[in-house]
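Lab notes, practical 5.
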Amino acid sequence: MTTRGTYETRDLQGGETRSDKPTGSVERGAATLVIKGVTAQIWENYGEYYLDEVVAGKVYAQAEEAVQRRAEVEILRYAA
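Output from the prediction step:
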């Protein structure tokens, strides 16, 4: 996992988190979706992003929609 822009599940323990709205990417099939301003928690110690279940569900739904449209690359702004 890169330190910026890739949303994955990871077990990070300890350290402080802060709220931020980073830009990240999701690859789904042949589609790459870049989403700006996603609501996330960022671990200060690791620089890794954490998305809660609701936000992650919306991001993955947007990625699935891009696949259905047969998009190769899309850049979107996250809308809560």
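Observations recorded by the TA: The chain has one domain: 17-77. Residues 1-9 have pLDDT under 50 and may be disordered.
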